[in-house]
Amino acid sequence: xxxxxxxxxxxxxxxxxxxxxxxxxxxxxxxxxxxxxxxxxxxxxxxxxxxxxxxxxxxxxxxxxxxxxxxxxxxxxxxxxxxxxxxxxxxxxxxxxxxxxxxxxxxxxxxxxxxxxxxxxxxxxxxxxxxxxxxxxxxxxxxxxxxxxxxxxxx
Length: 155
Fold this sequence. Notes:
The chain is mainly alpha-helical. 78% of the residues lie in helices and 0% in strands.
């Protein structure tokens, strides 16, 4: 690129520079994404820590006082940037961090719906939802069933 900038400008100079910058960016993407392939063991450890963090968050009822776990909270606890965590999760699970958190919420909701007699509103509140309608909507979007229909499928 330096040589191109030093040479005389012609009608192809801009195209050549843009192509070289694009090549540089492609190499950068390659090296950035390669880390998700070469660091699989470390990344699986991060996912294990993430799962443990989410389980503890709900088991210790942090959701009652802090609401739903946020991407910022999770990434801070794992000492990772939000972007890195999301990219790593997407490469390993196909989900970004927000989707992964929602998946964990749905799994915890399914567990409570199938093993307790709590009302849907009580479960929504325990999971950190301010309004049970938001919980119902998320649950139905993710499972294609309402929470009540899911619970009735066990009877």
